[in-house]
Every structure is written in C-alpha cells, then in structure tokens.
Design goal:
The chain has 181 residues and is an alpha/beta fold. It is built from 6 helices and 7 strands. Helix 1 crosses helix 5, helix 3 crosses helix 4 and helix 4 crosses helix 6.
C-alpha cells in the first residue's frame, strides 16, 4: 500500500498539523512516511499545503506532481490541485470553503461539511481532525489507534486532555463525509 496525499487550505485551518498527525500515525504503525510542508510568508491566512506519503515500502522521492488523494479546504486549493489528482483518485473538499464544486468525472469526489460540524461541536480547533476522520473513512491510510498514538506523540503533554475530543472529531468526520455523484 502506498498513498500520496496533498492537503491544502488557508493557514490556520490545521493543514500542516493534519499532515503531521497523518505522517506520525504511519510511523506509529511501522510504515514509511514523508511529510513535506509548503506555506506562504504568513502563517495564518496565507495558503498552506502539505504532501504526505504513507507506504509499506521505501519511498523514493517526496516530490510529487500527481496525487492519489487531495484534500482541499478552500477554493484556491481546489483550483490548483483538482487537475493534479491521478485518474481514479480521491478528492475531498470542505463544503464551507469551496464555492464552485469539483468538475472531474474520472475521480471519486467527497464533500465533508467539517466547518459546520466543528461549530456544532463548539470547537473550531477540531476542524482538521473532522477532515482527517473523513479521509480515514474513504481511504483507511492509517488506523484510529495509530492516530491516537500520533496525537500523544505530537501534542504537548499539557494538551493530552484534548485527545478524547480529537478522537471524537475523527469519528464525527467518518460519519458526515458524503460521496458526490
């Protein structure tokens, strides 16, 4: 198994941390991983993306021009990355951040209303974990157990009390993602 994933959105949406948690989850499960962030000069409000590769075998290069899975959280990200998904690949988009939905017919397209769900859960900081849950529902790149271990590894100890909330957000994401026909 090898999955090449791009996650893209505005800075402050948790794009880089979502990628980091996905990568650490793979490490916790003994997989080969790469995590390569890219962001503009502003940390909050500018565009950011991260490429994550999770593989059972060695990874030859972290540089990609096409992806198995794209997660886009805003319109500029959709405009930039929709064409870079391999035929038969997966596109996941947040319904709040994307105005003009994807148009490709040779990929599976999923919508997740993560921003709405985060508001319902009364915690905007779990937005990225809701999206990650959606990804894991449609493509189980890593296990929930691996994600939980990764959260303990990546979050400062003072935030470990938030891990149950993050795992609840992952479950919520699994429940609300919808395939668009």
């Amino acid at each position: 198994m090898k999955k090449e994933v791009i996650i893209s959105g505005f800075g402050g949406q948790g794009v880089l941390s979502m990628g980091k948690i996905l990568a650490y989850s793979g490490l916790m499960e003994g997989k080969e991983v790469t995590w390569m962030p890219a962001y503009g000069p502003e940390q909050r409000g500018g565009t950011a993306n991260v490429t994550v590769i999770v593989s059972d075998d060695r990874i030859s290069s972290p540089i990609l021009s096409q992806y198995d899975i794209a997660i886009v959280l805003n319109q500029p990200s959709l405009d930039k990355f929709e064409s870079k998904i391999k035929p038969g690949g997966i596109l996941i988009y947040d319904g709040f951040g994307v105005i003009n939905p994807p148009t490709r017919k040779d990929i599976k397209v999923y919508r997740i209303d993560a921003m709405d769900k985060a508001a319902e859960m009364q915690n905007s900081k779990v937005f990225n974990m809701i999206v990650l849950g959606g990804l894991l529902q449609v493509s189980p790149v890593v296990s929930d157990n691996g994600v939980e271990k990764a959260l303990f590894k990546t979050l400062p100890e003072r935030h470990h009390k938030l891990i149950p909330l993050n795992m609840e957000a992952i479950k919520a994401g699994r429940d609300i993602i919808q395939e668009m026909k």
